[in-house]
Every structure is written in structure tokens, then in C-alpha cells.
Cytochrome P450 (Hypoxylon rubiginosum), 526 residues
Amino acid sequence: MSSNPMLDTALLAPRLLDDCVAWASSLSKNDIGGLLFLVTLTLTLWNYFSSPKQRLVPGIPVIGGASKKDRIRSRERFRHDSKAMLAEGYFRNNVNGGFFYVPSPLGERLMLPVRYLEDLKTAPVDKVDFVGTFIEMFEGKYTTFGSRSTLHPRTVKADLNQHLPDVMMSVQDEIVECFDEIFPKCSEEEWTEVPLVDVITRIVARVSSRMFGGPELSRNASWVAASIAFAIDGYIGAQKLKRYPEFLKRPAARLIPEVRNLANHYREAEKAALPMLAERARTGERPKDLLAWMQDAAVGEETDPRFIAGILLKISFAAIHTTAAGNSQLIFDLCAHPDLIPLVREEYGRVADEDGKIGKKGFFQMHIMDSIMKESQRFNPLLLVTFERIITEDWRLSDGFVIPAHTTIGVPAQAIAMDPKLYPEPETFDGLQFAKLRQSTDDPATKGKAQFVAANPQSMAFGYGRHACPGRFFAGDEIKAITIYLLNNYDIKFAEGQTRPKSVEVETQFLPDHAATILCKKRKAA
Ligand code: HEM
């Protein structure tokens, strides 16, 4: 035998192959079934043992029990009963500042007491990884979800927020057109049943597109449809992929229709954005929209127009279904508490400009609407857990506690919002409580904390720190503008005997019920 191992393998390979072919042709059907099973098992085990493993910190309570069997059961339970599990963990362990693990299909997530947020809020992104949680949740390796580019958060923070008053003027024009074209036709006499979440999602997609690329983009029906479908296909595609072991996900992704559709959505985004970018580059025209700000702020690979078109889809994922969910929940709450509706209409009368539009000051002065939005979000936030991050290296907190590498951390945002230490009667819906708080104090910090857009350890719906949602100021004004247009032009209510639709739990997500409807009637012109 040669002493060169490479050569040995090369010499052996053809014989091995011949032997294998001879052996395989001698196998019966049953043998082949057994062989396939063995190969799958080996690859699954290899995949299991070769992927980074989470280490649990001893002594930290695990919701549902710490034994392997309990954890496997609890991981399944988390798919549809996450809210109760998180509340159990928070109220049993966290009130006095304890950590707890909540098992989930992704593994045991470590829920942190909020006092550690200060230690982590500006941690380096390669060690305390925000985008990684998206990539995991939405199978980003195969769906492209979860971009590490900072172009969109950068421009939303620096440009959109600065130009918000101008943007909101054209957004309000878009809302009028949207209701004309999208909202079901209603009469002044009869109540019409409206599938709320679907209608609001289509309106929010159009309105957001106006902010992304002006009327040219918002009137592009193919783009608007792609921006809605991108999130839905990505979400369903990711759920389907999760059924496969890691080594089978790539081939499976090629067969799952929703994942395959994503390429069409990218094509649609390019078809819409590339001519606009080219025209703007040619003329030097700079309208006040996200596309123009991204074109100006792009550096390096970000300057590729196809890259910008892709980011446009990713920002629509961050902006559309999130805002539509919040807006739908608010409208459900207004139907459940109809006494609040005249107060909102009166407030609008006080703050609106002469032309009926709401300006920068007007949006800020809508304390009643803002308060109801915050209360609605306290009960039904989009996410039960926020501040989700993957710890990539052992991370020592200021008091010496070490979070082991490969741990997904988070904060049980919705459970915190139900803490009687923070809210005197947490289970009672009081739409005006934040407006009263703002009125009752001169302290700017307390007034600030009572706002819908506040992001602090008591109000975690928009996350916290370095990655706290930069789009929340736009989302807040957008929800106000859409809701006030609805209330000014329609009466709304639930059908006789209908109760407030319950939100649907899907792991950490808490989604408005898509099947729920409300009744609408056109208001008589004054
Ligand atoms: C009510 C609607 C919305 C909700 C509930 C929401 C919620 C969130 C949450 C929880 C985060 C993660 C924060 C963290 O973990 O610390 C986030 C991040 C983000 N959101 Fe929103 N969001 C909403 C609307 C929007 C809108 C309208 C935009 C765009 C205009 C937007 C753009 C973003 C971006 C770009 C990030 C990532 C920030 C980063 O990478 O640093 N969001 N959002």
C-alpha cells in the first residue's frame, strides 16, 4: 500500500464503487427502505451533533419542567400556548428579578429580567445578534429573510423620522384614495360586513408604499401585491421548512411553492424600483421618500439598484403586517368600547388643520387616540417576546451572571404589560389611562413614557436599545391617520352578540384574528 492517504483513497474508490453497485443491485425493496431509513437517521444524528448546542444554566427554572421529556412536550406547547407559558414564567419567577427558560421549537429561550437591558442594549451586533433571531425564525438561509444590511434602519432613523411631517401630508392623500378604491362599498342605511384585517392590510400596504416611493410606487398594483405576498409566502414557507431536518432544508426549499414564489416577488420589486432609481439618477430628482433616501445613503454593495430593490421588499416586511396588525387590534378595541369613539372624533375636531388634514402638532396633540392605541397594544401586542437576540459568545452581565453562547434571549413583553406593579388594574381595559397620566404631570419623562411610541423597560412592544423599532413614529402617525379617516366617514360596530376577537398565538407572535369581521355604515355628510 502507498503511504500517501490521498492516493490510497483514489485507488480504493473505483473498487469501493463497484462493490457498492453490486451490493445495491442485490438489495430487495425492503432492504432499500431500511437503507434509506438508516441514511436519514445517520444524517439527522450527524446534523444534531455537529450543530452548536445550547447549554442550560443550572438552577434556572424551565417552564413546564426541566427534564428532557418535559422540555420536548413544552416545546410543542409553545407553538399555541406561549402567552400562558410566558405569564407563568414571569409571574412565578421574574417578579422578584429571576430568569426563566421557556422551551420553544427553537430551543429553550432565556427570558431576562428587564434590569439587564442596560447591560445589553448597545452590545456589539456580532456578539448579541438581533438579525440572527429573524434568520432563525424565518429560515432566512433559504427564504432570504433577515438582512444584515443597515441601509433601511439607517435611513428610517436619519431621514424618514426627520421628514415625517411632510411624508404624513402625502400619506393622508393616499388614505383618501385607498378608502375609495379598497374599502368595501357601504351605504348610509345598511350595515356592511367588512373582513377587517385583510382590508386594513391592503390599505397599509398602499399607504406604506406611498412613503417608500411616492405615488408612482403606491399606484403600482403589482408591486403592492408583491409587498404583501412577500411576507405571507416567507412566513408560510418558513413554517413548512421547519418540518425538515437542517440537511434536507435546501432541497426542500426548491420544492416548497411559497419559497419558490419569493424569487417572483424580488423580480416584481426590481421591475418597480429599477426604472425609478434610474430615472432619479438621470434627472437628479430627489423626492421625499425612502427610495431616494436609500439611494443617497447607500455605500459599497448597497449602491447596486437591485440590492436597493431587495431592501425595499425587506422594509415592507418590517412595516406592513406589523402596522396592519396594530391598526386592526385598535379597531377591534374601538368596537368593543364604543364610548371611546365620540371622544376620538371630538379630539380630531380640535387638532385638525382647516383643510381637514392633521399636521405635526396635530398628531402630537391626539392624546386620546394615542392613549387608546397604547392600551390596545398593551393587551394585544404583535409580539409576546421582544428584545430577542442570539448570544454568540459567552456573555458576562454586570453582576457576573454568564449567558452561555448559542442562547436565544428575550424579554416577555406582554407579561410585563400585565404586571400589577406597573398598572394598577392590569386586566381592565382603560383606553384613557395614558392620556390621564400625561395630563396629570409636568414631568417630561413621565409624559414621554405614556406615549404610544415609548420604548422603555415597561413598554417593550417596540423592543429596546440599539435595535428598537425605528419605524414606530411613522407607524403611530399612520395608524392615527387611517383610524381617524375610518371613524370620520363610517360608523363601526360588532355584529349583535359578537365579542372582541381573540388574538391567535403562533409561538412569540400574537396575531389579530384574520377571520373576524366588523360592521360598517357610511356616515351621513354633516
Ligand atoms: C406597529 C407597528 C410596528 C411594530 C409593533 C414593530 C415592532 C418592531 C420590533 C419589536 C422590532 C425589534 C426591536 C428590538 O428587538 O429591540 C422592530 C425593528 C424594526 N422595525 Fe419595526 N415595528 C412596527 C412598524 C415598523 C415600520 C412602519 C417600519 C418602517 C417604516 C419598521 C421598521 C423596523 C426596522 C428597520 C427594524 C430593525 C431595526 C434594526 O435593525 O436596528 N417597523 N420593529
User: Anything to note?
Assistant: The CA atoms of residues 128 and 139 lie 19 Å apart.
